[in-house]
Amino acid sequence: MAAALGEEVPENEDYYSLLNVRREASQEELKAAYRRLCMLYHPDKHRDPELKTQAEQLFNLVHQAYEVLSDPQTRAIYDIYGRRGLEMEGWEVVERRRTPAEIREEFERLQREREERRLQQRTNPKGTISVGIDATDLFDRYDEEYEDVPGSSFPQIEINKMHISQSIEAPLTATDTAILSGSLSTQNGNGGGSINLALRRVTSPKGWGELEFGAGDLQGPLFGLKIFRNLTPRCFITTNCALQFSSRGIRPGLTTVLARNLDKNTMGYLQWRWGIQSAMNTSIVRDTKTSHFTVALQLGIPHSFMMISYQHKFQDEDQTRVKGSLKAGFFGTIVEYGAERKISRHSILGATVSVGVPQGVSLKIKLNRASQTYFFPVHLTDQLLPSAVFYATVGPLVIYFAMHRLIIKPYLRAQKEK
Question: What pLDDT shows up at residue 270?
Answer without folding.
Answer: 96
